[in-house]
Write a structure and sequence with these properties.
Strand order of the largest sheet: 9-8-7-10-11
CATH topology of the largest domain: SH3 type barrels
Helix content: under 10%
CATH class of the largest domain: Mainly Beta
Shape: flat
Number of helices: 1
Strand content: over 45%
Number of domains: 3
Order of helices and strands: EEEEEEEEEHEEEEEEE
Radius of gyration: 21 Å
């Protein structure tokens, strides 16, 4: 287990803070007049998803969290629980509260492969690709002369999520979506 000094606590690292796993969302090292440098960080708790701001000082260090990944398939979401099964071992099923993984699960269709991050051999959260291709199931027709609003419309994807797209998108089109921003990237296939 690596020990990280205050300035090595950077974005995308997973650290152990107060014996809990946290993902570093952002970090900024600065010094205030005549004082020692400080690393101002935003951390997301991997289990609860709660975001906190912590400042690490020059004399502080934290261990990097021992995070492992297993490949799993997304099964379904029911009664506020999102269920997954380990690839190659379908009997190993586990769930997360839907509220904890909603921002990721909304982009998944049944049997989509995801990485499950484990901490101390317990599943703590899921990691999905930054870009995912999804089929449009419902799109309002483009109305001629409707470009005054900037020319976008809200379409529904096969995962159930909705996203703003250009007016030329139709049902059946396959779109590439940026899952971190929740935005349309490009049309991959025309219906």
């Amino acid at each position: 287990m690596a020990i990280l000094s205050y300035n090595e606590i950077v974005q995308k690292k997973v650290i152990q803070y107060n014996n809990e796993p946290y993902e570093v969302l952002s970090s900024h090292v600065f010094r205030m007049q005549q004082r020692k440098p400080v690393n101002q960080t935003k951390l997301r708790h991997l289990v609860s998803g709660k975001v906190t701001e912590i400042s690490f000082h020059q004399n502080e260090s934290v261990p990097e969290a021992d995070i492992a990944t297993i490949e799993a398939l997304y099964l379904y979401t029911n009664r506020d629980e999102s269920w997954f099964a380990e690839v190659g071992n379908p009997k190993n099923r586990f769930s997360f509260p839907e509220s904890m993984v909603h921002d990721k699960v909304q982009w998944l269709v049944q049997n989509t492969q995801v990485n499950v991050l484990t901490y101390n051999d317990k599943p703590v959260t899921i990691s999905i690709p930054v870009k995912i291709d999804l089929k449009v199931t419902d799109a309002p027709p483009a109305v001629k002369g409707d470009t005054a609003t900037g020319g976008s419309k809200l379409v529904t994807l096969e995962s159930g999520a909705t996203v703003l797209t250009p007016l030329f998108i139709n049902p059946g089109d396959v779109l590439r979506i940026n899952t971190e921003l929740g935005e349309y990237v490009e049309r991959m296939e025309k219906a």
